[in-house]
Design goal:
The complex is a heterotrimer of chains A (about 250), B (about 240) and C (about 675). In chain A, the strands form 2 sheets. In chain A, strands 2-1-5-3-4 form a 5-stranded mixed beta sheet. A two-stranded antiparallel ribbon of chain A has the order 6-7. In chain A, α5 (about 175-185) packs across α8 (about 230-245). In chain A, β1 (about 5-10) and β2 form a beta hairpin. With about 250 residues, chain A is an alpha+beta fold. Chain A has 8 helices and 7 strands. Helix content of chain A is about 35%, strand content about 10%. With about 240 residues, chain B is mainly α. Chain B has a single domain (about 30-115, about 130-240), classed as Up-down Bundle (3 helical TM bundles of succinate and fumarate reductases). Helix content of chain B is about 70%, strand content about 0%. Chain B is built from 10 helices and no strands. In chain B, α9 packs antiparallel against α10. Chain B is globular, with a radius of gyration of 23 Å. Chain B starts with a helix and ends in a 5-residue tail after the last helix. Among the domains of chain C are: about 15-25 and about 515-665, Methane Monooxygenase Hydroxylase, Chain G, domain 1; about 305-440, Succinate dehydrogenase/fumarate reductase flavoprotein, catalytic domain (Flavocytochrome C3, Chain A, domain 1, Alpha-Beta Complex). Chain C has helices spanning about 5-10, 10-15, 55-65, 85-95, 135-145, 150-170, 205-220, 285-295, 355-360, 370-385, 400-405, 410-425, 480-505, 515-535, 540-555, 560-580, 590-615, 640-645; strands at about 20-25, 40, 75-80, 100-105, 120, 185, 195, 225, 230-240, 240-250, 255-260, 260-265, 300, 305-310, 335, 355, 395-400, 435-445, 445-450, 460-465, 645-650, 660-665. In chain C, α4 (about 85-95) packs parallel to α7, α6 (about 150-170) packs across α13 (about 480-505) and α15 packs antiparallel against α16. The two termini of chain C are about 45 Å apart. The chains are: A alpha+beta (about 250), B mainly alpha (about 240), C alpha+beta (about 675). Chains in contact: A-B, A-C, B-C. The interface between A and C is large, with 80 and 84 residues.
Chain lengths: ~250, ~240, ~675
């Protein structure tokens, strides 16, 4: 396959960037999208040009490092991570637009690399259960209803890639934050910190400069792990419950 | 194995020590402010349903609806004075509109700031109803002003007969531009309610995976009912069913 | 304390191999230009207490000195890596009051490659009442490691396994549960009890997020100073002790030093030396290799694990390999065509022309033979020219019988998500067309040599998780990597690190210490040298070539001739690298090509040591299969009289002969036997 790529190039956080056009040939439909970019980068290096910087690591859809907006969609046309998107979903001769995640809270570091450390700070504000090593009772001390365990798991699947923020017209981190709130608040172990967790995490989320939720549902559509939109409702419920009880 | 909980117990404590008031916390957070929008929106929605049902009295003739309008002024008597209830309702509605509008304005500004740069590859996003919330809200705010001038203060009403809403309605819808303004506004109401009702449920945490479909159906039903109910009056005037 | 490992790290050993070293009679002199090796003093673990094995860990903790809680803030500990081992260690040390400075090259500590582990985590809970016990887990692990692991360490691992599950549940890790609300378990390869706890196919992710969240709490509380996107490039050894690291900020390119009272390496394994592996693309060996160059012995580098069920490569563009859970072998049947070069589609090959080779060679275990056996058998049939798919590098894993027997729905319920993943990558529907699978590098049992305290031969330098060599011997059992990482991080390292910090006076390192300036300069020089070459080959092209060479000569089956070929080729490739490498840009920016090239420099040296280790170990054991040492049936033949030791290698200089220090392994509790699966 031969493709025309229009890729966002930006040398650093404070330099202006622009869309730059490249031609790549010899692309196999079996390549992943990132392998296609590898091919381009090999050519760029040999030409002495700077290769396109992009975050990636596990390349099996679980680490959450990769992520770019492909033809206007976070992670591209398939509901998966960029590393698991394959070139067979494109046609020979296509022009493909590749851009970094866009959000005020995710400043561009270089090219397609953005700074997602705001997510880490949201987790640090309350996305944990306080259980210092060695303090745990036996694992069977508190049975957890299967339904709660399953709900917790479904929300714990979030890989923190940031597609939800990139897809949201408001650059909102509600789906990311709610996934962690629901994961921990639905479990009995998370009970004691239930109120403070949601209050502190929402406060941290707002402080990072993410937008609010206008319930457009773009986040859940883009989420490669299928975190459902009603998670946000569940977090809102936890938040209102906590604040009306003077929570924390 | 010894652990020293004191070190981080202290740091946790310092974070949780400050306790701003519940309302301040709510208003300051995006989630809380959105809840204010949801509650004020639902209050207005409740009012709209009552308003729409009241409007339908126009089909029972002038005496019916004029009598109904007069009765509205006597609600709560003798405990309340004449028109007291109406004024309480008006103040409440005004508060709802102001809260809804201010919250929407502040949240919108924040949302736009949170996404300062657009994608080069533009693509149609979200549903029609979602995308129309902001300017739909502005249209509705302007319409409310027009509507009050037209049928409450009667400032711009061609008939302007105090205590005789039937005559005022028929007179107002006798103008084509009045009808156009009204019809556009009612379509905006429909779209606004269609997204707003479900959105309010989501914001207030009433939604979950099982209820999602039901809530969306209810939102669509309410939107349709309100739009149809409200539009039936100008349509009836224009077609001569009500004159 | 006599014959302690520190003494073996003394300068007279690292200066030159001629000192006290004599040629090993077991290996012929090298005909080519590659370095041979010499044999130094044996090495021994002196930290494990004597006495009954069940009491050793208690005894060690009792003997350990404690640091007064009020004084812990004054101690700084550097932790490199945020995977299961590093994340757990960082969080726990910070909870105990230490000042932790932690590093990861990823943009967030949550992305460490532990996240990709699928299957589960073993623990001797015996919740099933099926006869499991600490003793049995200990036994299974020693035997599974083909008797090349240290008994004391493995027993401690089995003991601690029980606490790990408690800890993770308390953190909110959503393990699979039964309707009664209790934890579910499943069985895993080569074991007869059900002791594997799991969270669907994402156990590693869930355990890592638990550790990450505990770590995040400590970061927010100010007890952990986290440096993400910062890569360790060297170790600071001052007055014979590890006192810090030199690291590069990957965004600004700035090279800085960080000093501490102890350094903990939790930087994972070195499987990426093969280029194609199931490791994450950026997982690398630089941290452990730099430590090795500074005096830490590297043990058993040739012990690498090859997983039999990975998706085969689809072409030269392939950048990594993806694992398909081993559980598929429960219902899938593995076969290749009987005839060589048969290119017919699988559904046109009649039953009698198919070779279900595992069922044929191993009638009693069939498709469920252990990983190393299944991997080697696949390689053999492909070498015979009977492999399927592009390049003939694959075998069929066929579910047609399972679908016929159980129905499509039942198969879907069991393996639906795996089938979907397979189809996403290959665009083939495994319900209709047999899957194609091929073995791939998955895990490295070798690593930095550590004693019972997980301390390397450099005092104050600790290695935990996959970065060390301690628990898995020559082969790791399924679901044991997660167990070891968390055991080391949560429970083993903290008390023994306490002991180190309490015992030794550790005067502060002045910021202008000459060693700091000199190591920083070395690091910067190396980066500048790479940038200055301006040749005509990319880092990836070298990495691919090195990987293919290792895969061919030091992969699933190794022999003397091949290893010698590799040992001649690697130095030549390294030399070519310094002539032809091309890295655009500068060192003062985010430069991913520079990162790759810099890691590659260490891979060349590591690859050489791997091949040398594989060459010197003229026996087969676990994942290390020397074709010269096999039973008449073609199975791995251990040679316990000669090789019942861990090989700890001492670095003497690039391209120079390393020194071998043998740690003799005694088996008091589990007696070595030969494995048989026929």
């Amino acid at each position: 396959m031969n493709l025309t790529l229009r890729i966002w190039r930006q040398a650093g956080p404070d330099t202006p960037g622009s869309m730059t056009t490249y031609q790549v040939g010899g692309i196999s439909p079996d390549m992943s999208f990132l392998e296609m970019l590898d091919t381009l980068n090999e050519e760029l290096i040999l030409r002495g040009d700077a290769p396109v910087a992009f975050d990636h690591d596990c390349r099996e859809g679980i680490c959450g490092a990769c992520g770019m907006v492909i033809n206007g969609r976070a992670h591209g046309p398939e509901r998966t991570t960029t590393c698991q998107l394959h070139m067979r979903h494109f046609e020979d001769g296509d022009t493909i637009d590749v851009e970094p995640w866009r959000a005020a809270a995710f400043p561009v570091v270089k090219d397609l690399v953005v700074d997602r450390s705001a997510f880490d700070r949201i987790i640090g504000a309350g996305g944990y259960i306080t259980a210092p090593t060695g303090s745990a009772p036996d694992a069977h001390a508190t049975p957890v209803p299967k339904e709660a365990a399953d709900t917790a798991f479904e929300h714990a699947e979030c890989i923190g890639c940031g597609a939800c923020v990139a897809a949201c017209p408001n650059g909102s981190a509600m789906l990311f934050t709610s996934a962690k709130v629901v994961h921990l608040n639905v479990l009995p172990q998370g009970g004691p910190e239930r109120a403070s967790r949601v209050m502190n995490m929402v406060e941290a989320m707002d402080a990072e400069g993410f937008g609010g939720c206008t319930n457009t549902g773009e986040c859940a559509t883009a989420c490669p792990k299928g975190i459902p939109l009603p998670s946000i409702a569940a977090m809102n419920r936890e938040y209102l419950r906590s604040s009306l009880r003077g929570g924390r | 194995m010894t652990t020293v909980p004191t070190v981080d117990a202290m740091t946790t404590a310092s974070r949780t020590a400050r306790h701003p008031s519940t309302l301040a916390t709510l208003w300051r957070s995006t989630v809380g402010k959105k809840a204010v929008m949801a509650v004020s929106g639902l209050a207005m929605l409740l009012y709209l349903v009552a308003h729409m049902l009241g409007n339908l009295k126009v089909f029972f003739g002038p005496d019916d609806i004029n009598g109904y309008a007069a009765w509205l002024r006597t609600i709560g008597q003798p405990f309340l004075g004449h028109e007291w209830f109406l004024w309480i309702a008006r103040v409440g509605l005004l508060a709802a509109v102001v809260l809804h509008g201010v919250a929407a304005f502040q949240l919108s500004r924040r949302d736009l700031a949170a996404r300062p740069s657009k994608y080069a590859h533009q693509r149609r996003r979200a549903s029609y109803a979602t995308r129309t919330m902001r300017w739909g809200g502005v249209i509705l705010a302007l319409f409310i002003v027009w509507h009050i001038l037209d049928l409450t203060t009667l400032t711009v009403n061609p008939a302007a007969e105090h205590g005789r809403p039937y005559q005022n309605i028929v007179a107002s819808f006798g103008n084509w531009y009045s009808c156009v303004i009204y019809i556009v506004a009612m379509l905006a109401v429909g779209l606004h309610v269609r997204h707003g009702f479900w959105s309010a449920a989501q914001t207030l945490g009433a939604n979950n995976a099982r209820r999602d479909r039901l809530l969306k159906l209810t939102a669509n039903g309410l939107a349709l009912l309100l739009t149809a109910g409200f539009l039936s009056v100008p349509v009836a005037v224009m077609t001569g069913v009500v004159k | 304390m006599n014959a302690s490992p520190e003494q073996n790290a003394s300068p007279e050993h690292s200066a030159s191999p001629e000192h006290k070293a004599h040629p090993d009679p077991g290996v012929h002199p090298a005909p080519g230009g590659y370095p041979d090796y010499s044999v130094g003093e044996p090495i021994a673990d002196t930290r494990s207490p004597q006495g009954p094995i069940e009491q050793r860990w208690d005894q060690r903790r009792f003997e350990a000195k404690l640091v007064n809680p009020a004084n812990r803030r004054k101690h700084t500990v550097i932790v490199v890596g945020t995977g299961l081992a590093g994340g757990a260690a960082g969080a726990t040390l910070a909870e105990q009051g230490y000042h932790v400075v932690q590093f990861c090259f990823q943009d967030s500590p949550r992305r460490a490659h532990s996240i990709a582990a699928q299957g589960g985590i073993n623990a001797a809970k015996n919740y099933r009442n099926d006869g499991d016990s600490v003793r049995r887990l200990f036994y299974d692990t020693v035997k599974g490691g083909d008797f090349r692991a240290r008994e004391s360490n493995v027993h401690r691992l089995a003991q601690v396994s029980v606490e790990i599950i408690d800890q993770c549940v308390a953190q909110g890790v959503p393990f699979a549960r039964e309707y009664g609300g209790l934890l579910d378990t499943r069985s895993f390869g080569g074991v007869q009890v059900s002791r594997t706890f799991y969270a669907r196919g994402q156990t590693g992710q869930q355990l890592l997020l638990g550790a990450y969240q505990a770590l995040s709490r400590q970061i927010a509380a100010g007890n952990v100073e986290m440096h993400a996107r910062t890569e360790m490039l060297d170790l600071l050894v001052i007055d014979g002790r590890a006192r810090g690291i030199v690291a590069r900020d990957l965004v600004t390119g700035e090279v800085s030093s960080y000093t501490a009272d102890a350094v903990v390496l939790a930087s994972g394994g070195y499987g990426n030396v093969f280029y194609l592996s199931t490791n994450a693309k950026n997982s690398n060996a630089t941290a452990i290799w730099r430590a090795h160059r500074r005096g830490a012995y590297f043990a058993n580098p040739c012990f690498t694990q090859i997983h039999p069920t990975c998706i085969p490569r689809s072409g030269d563009h392939q950048s990594k390999l993806t694992l398909m859970s081993e559980s598929l072998r429960n219902d899938g049947r593995i076969w290749v065509p009987k005839a060589k070069g048969d290119t017919r589609p699988p559904d046109e090959i009649p039953e009698q022309e198919r070779d279900y080779y595992l069922e044929r060679i191993y009638p009693s275990f069939g498709n469920l033979v252990p990983r190393d056996i299944a991997s080697r058998a696949a390689k053999n049939v492909c070498d015979e020219g009977r492999g399927v798919g592009p390049g003939g590098q694959g075998v069929y894993l066929d579910f047609a019988d399972a679908v016929r027997r159980l129905g499509r729905d039942a198969v879907e319920a069991k393996y639906g998500n795996l089938f979907e993943m397979y189809e996403r990558i290959t665009a083939e529907d495994p319900y209709r067309v047999p899957m194609r699978i091929y073995p791939a590098i998955h895990y490295t049992m070798g690593g930095l040599w550590v004693d019972y305290d997980l301390q390397t031969t450099v005092p104050g330098l600790f290695a935990i998780g996959e970065a060390n060599f301690s628990d898995h011997g020559a082969n790791r059992l399924g679901a044991s990597a997660l167990m070891q990482g968390l055991a080391d991080g949560y429970f083993v390292l903290p008390p023994v690190l306490n002991d180190y910090l309490a015992r030794e006076p550790l005067p502060a390192v002045p910021a202008d210490h000459e060693e700091i300036a000199s190591v920083e300069a070395e690091v910067a020089d190396r980066l500048n040298l790479i940038l200055a070459v301006d040749g005509d080959r990319t880092p990836d092209s070298f990495h691919r070539e090195l990987g293919e060479l290792l895969w061919d000569e030091c992969g699933m089956a190794r022999d003397e001739a091949g290893l010698r070929r590799a040992l001649e080729r690697i130095p030549a490739l390294r030399e070519e690298f310094w002539r032809r490498i091309k890295v655009p840009g500068t060192g003062q920016e985010l430069n991913q090509a520079l990162e790759k090239a810099n890691r590659l420099v260490d891979y060349f040296e590591l690859a050489e040591l791997m091949c040398l280790d594989a060459l010197h170990r003229a026996e087969s054991c676990g994942g290390h299969f020397r074709t010269e040492s096999q039973t008449p049936e073609g199975e791995a033949a251990r040679r316990d009289e000669e090789f019942s030791y861990a090989a700890a290698w001492e670095f003497t200089g690039t391209g120079r002969a390393p020194v071998l220090h043998r740690e003799h392994l005694d088996f008091e509790y589990v007696h070595p036997t030969q494995r048989s699966y026929a």
